[in-house]
Design a protein that fits this description.
This protein has nine helices and no strands. The protein is mainly α. Helix 5 runs antiparallel to helix 8, helix 7 crosses helix 8 and helix 8 packs antiparallel against helix 9. The N and C termini lie far apart (47 Å).
Length: 179
Amino acid sequence: MEAEDEDDNDEITLDPPPAQPVLEGDLLKTRIDAVVGSPALWNRLEIRLGDLLEEMADFDDSLNDDELQSLFTVAIIALGAMHPVVPREYDPDPYRMTAWYQEEIATGPADEKMAEYMETLFEKTVQPKVASAAAGMLAGYAEDKKIRDEKLEQLITAVCAAIWEAAHWPVDLNPEAKN
């Protein structure tokens, strides 16, 4: 069975997300505040993003409970800011997200300075401001000692993988206009 899973992962294409407006500035802040401030929205997002969160839990079994919870929290906030109204017909691909994450972890920063590496990583998500905000949240958890320093880069890469995956979904940066 494991060989089949590996074969399936070999077939995953890592096509970049489609071009889209960048979520930034006041709109991004408003979206983040809305996700954090609404338990009902949070619960809906947690349920609808369940497949991605479950796959994120399998990225690395060396993550402790605080690190995993931090990753889930930041992923829900970031993806909720991008897609506060997750359409029922959305089709996230947790395996595509995993393949992108594994590719990014394998290439790592190498000779690049960490700041340059992170900037490049954020740009690849197609939503660099969302990725930067998520990285900032994770860095805050690291300062509070909820994340081990040696895991921070990995967790930032993981949340960027989720942002990259969510950038493949239909984009609607102004769902409020529909009301």
